[in-house]
Amino acid sequence: MPPKVSKRKLSIPYSFYVLGALTALGVVLSIYRLAMGLEATTNLSDHYPWGLWIGLDVFLIPVAGAAFTVSAISHFWNREDYHRILRPAVFTGLLGYVSVAVILILDLGRWHQFYNILIPNYINLHSFLEEVALSVTLYTMILILEAAPTLLERWNLRLPIHFIERNILLIAGVGILISTVHQSSLGSMFLLVKHRLHPLWWTPILPLLFLLQALFGGVATAGVVVKLTLDKLGLPLDAGLFRKINKLVSILLALYLILRLGDLAVTGELGLLFGAGGYSLLAWGDLLIGCAIPLLILLSRFGKRAEGVFWAGIWIVLGIFINRVTISWIGLSAPPWATYVPHPVEVLSSLGILAGAVLAYLIVARFFNLFPEIEHAHHQ
Amino acid sequence: MSLSRRSFIKLAGLGTVGTLLCPPVALAAGGVDAANGVAMLYDATKCIGCKACQNACKDWNRNPPELDPSGLYDAPLELSADTWTLIQLYEGNGERSFVKLQCMHCLYPACVSACPVKALQKSPDGPVTYDPKRCIGCRYCMVACPFRVPRFKWDAVLSVVTKCTFCKDRLVKKLGPACVEACPAGALAWGKRGALLAEAHQRLSENPGQYVNYVYGEHDGGGTSVLYLSSVPFEKLGLPDLGHEPVPALNDFLAPIILPTIFIGGVLTLISARFLSGRRGSAAVGHKKEH
Q1: Which residues, given as ranges, of chain A have pLDDT below 70?
Q2: Cβ–Cβ of A110/B139 closer than 8 Å?
Q3: What angle do CA B261, B267, B268 make, to 5 degrees?
Q4: Which whole-number Å values give the CA distances from B267 to A63, A85, A178, in the listed order?
Q5: Which of B143, B256, B288 sits opposite A165 (nearest CB)?
Q6: Domain housing B205
Q7: B264 — contact with chain A (CB < 8 Å)?
Q8: Do B207 and B189 contact (CB within 8 A), yes or no?
Q9: Helix or strand run (H / E) with residue B91
Q10: In the predicted model, what is the mean pLDDT of residues B17-31?
Q11: Cα A25 → chain centroid
Q12: Angle value at C-alpha A78, between A73 and A80, nearest 5 degrees
């Protein structure tokens, strides 16, 4: 059993109230959106059928990849140091996917029958969106199983914990497979929109690029979350682990950057980095913020420390945000007269949902034991 | 660690089942009979821009007008949830031409490949149909359509996707599409696609110089069920240059391949990773039992 949680940790900090208020606002606005329809609550239109909500979903999925990446390294590559950060990674993933699901429901024009994605003879095997939707549903359930012991052990519910731990390799293995498939399928979704997506981003290797982003983005996100949580809990950082994260993320990020630039070079589209106005700027932001800067940090001496990995991770997540929002929203062409700026309900509901996810994580970090091995060693 | 070997077998079995669930399938609309399906021929050189087709479409489908500021005229500027076909005018470089917009009823529709729940389907007799009982309102079809045809009923609490139906509900009554039957100028014709293509090519050969020597829709984007003749280059009428390959070709080629590949590859990778690193003796999974 984990050591008893100290009294100090049980006091409720100020940030909980702020996040709680934002979450409540998000809940109210979400209900309002579902009751009022899309025109009253969004600025989406026939020319911008996808906007902030889809952009956030396509961004959150690789970030939530924290769970399957750390799970794979921990369970299948048997790395004990990664196993020590598995719980925060799993909760990051779970809360990420729950946010994705909630935001997706808000975006659906016919949300009242969203379960149609599960009806066997409706399933379109050619639709990569169907594949993503099915995977997100299934994988969220798997993440609930993976996360459950952390919660259940507090009430000493041994039977379900024992069941999950006995089958953890199977549960985690299926989760990793589903993740690998849908992280790439999320990219495959955009193969169909070649005529609409800006050539700086459309490429037949989108599925590979999306998978790579989920790998380095997932591990980097885990690094950021773990660093923040350990600092907050006053637990020691494992410098060796952060050096390993540095190495892994550097290699994958460098590979991704080479593929991005190589693809633009092969298709003769490197020139678009200069002549395409706002899109050139976005691409530079995407490549500099998401690739070059974090890579330089990771290769520097500062980058070998936990702080360095943390800051590289922040840049990487920001870069993935720019990249994914561009691919799923800004980079999709629209007539010159059409405009789209997210409606306040779109913005505030999104903020509320994300605040709810952060709040849930903080509650778990505070009242449950995210680092049993580290706590154990620390208190000895 | 006795649990692990059984788990591997389960995992491997699951990979096989996952693969079998995704048998190779051809293009989503591969079974379409291109020559015998229904189609429409629009000859822009004969169109007088009277918009009788537009009004007939609204009448038949009970779509409300989109009034101009005076409130007297139905004056839609683009396709919308209430306007499923539209006459637009192109003028420039001393050339002018009308152009009719509506669903192209592609032979290989991108919307059909995109739709997660088969709400959009290519019926064997030609029309691309929509079923609101299946639709979840994700709007992937709107993003995927290269002609930007599907429109959304944004102002409803529960929206629907809207587009030209090829008057499938008239076809079953042996009537032609409302727009075609309303045309007073002979600019519209409907019938079997093969026959209309022959007719189009005959007009091209009998009236050299009157047309751009090309039937738009014969091969574009893999072929469409609405065919166009024009005296003005087709791009100027807003008809995109899509090449001859079906728009969803890459998507439909990868869909049946990529999933089983990752599944089998994934199972093999996980199993070999587990065995190879497991032999090195670090037992992360059994760790908790030490407490």
Answers
A1: 1-11
A2: no
A3: 90
A4: 23, 24, 11
A5: B288
A6: 38-249
A7: no
A8: no
A9: strand B86-92
A10: 49
A11: 23
A12: 90
- pLDDT value of residue B288: 41
Report ipTM for this prediction.
Answer: 0.93
Domains identified in chain B, total number: 1
Q: CA Rg, chain B, in Å?
A: 26
From chain B residues 145-164, the ones with a CB under 8 A of any chain A CB are 146, 148, 151-152, 154-160
Burial class (CB in 10 A: 0-12, 13-18, 19+), B148: buried
How high is the pLDDT of residue B18? Answer: 52
Q: In what order do the strands lie in the sheet with B38-43?
A: B188-192, B38-43, B226-229
Q: Which of B144, B156, B285 sits opposite A193 (nearest CB)?
A: B144
DSSP letters, A142-199, are HHHHHHHHHHHGGGT-HHHHHHHHHTHHHHHHHHHHHHHHHHHHHHHGGGGGTTTB-T
Residue range B207-224: mean pLDDT, rounded = 96
3-state secondary structure of B190: strand
Q: How confident is the model at residue B138 (pLDDT cuts 50, 70, 90)?
A: very high
Q: Are B117 and A117 a contacting pair at CB < 8 A?
A: yes
Burial A223-235 (b: 16+ CB within 10 A, else e): bbbbbebbeebeb
Task: Read off the pTM.
Answer: 0.91
Q: Is A39's CB within 8 Å of B3's CB?
A: no
**Burial per residue of A281-298, b for 16 or more beta-carbon CB atoms within 10 angstroms, e otherwise:** ebbeebbebbbebbbebb
CATH number, domain with residue B131: 3.30.70.20
CA-closest candidate to residue B3, choices A356, A267, A170: A170
pLDDT tens-place string over residues B84-110: 999 999 999 889 999 999 999 999 999
Please check whether residue A123 touches B, CB under 8 A. Answer: yes
Q: What are phi and psi of B68, to 5 degrees?
A: -80, 175
Q: Tell me the one-letter amino acid at A30.
A: S
Tokens of B121: 């389907």
List, as own/partner pairs, every contact residues B215-221 make where C-beta atoms lie below 8 angstroms and the sequence separation is at least 24, other chains included: B217/B104, B219/B244, B220/B244, B221/B104, B221/B106, B221/B108, B221/B110, B221/B146, B221/B245, B221/B246, B221/B247
pLDDT greater than 70 at residue B5: no
Rounded Cα gap, residues B111 and B134, in angstroms:
14
Side-chain half-sphere CA neighbours of A130 within 13 A: 27
B79 at the A interface (CB within 8 A)?
yes
Contact B154 A37 (CB under 8 A): yes
Give residue A7's pLDDT: 47
**Whole-number Å distance between alpha carbons of A259 and A304:** 25
Contact at CB, A177 and B262, closer than 8 angstroms: yes
Question: Which amino acid, residue A26?
Answer: G
Per-residue pLDDT, B240: 96
Distance CA(B111)–CA(B122), nearest Å, equals: 10
In chain A, domain spans: 15-43+346-369, 44-334
- Does the CB of B116 have a partner CB in chain A at under 8 Å? yes
CA distance B185 to B45: 10
* Cα-trace Rg, chain A: 21
- CATH superfamily, domain at A44-334: Formate dehydrogenase/DMSO reductase domain (1.20.1630.10)
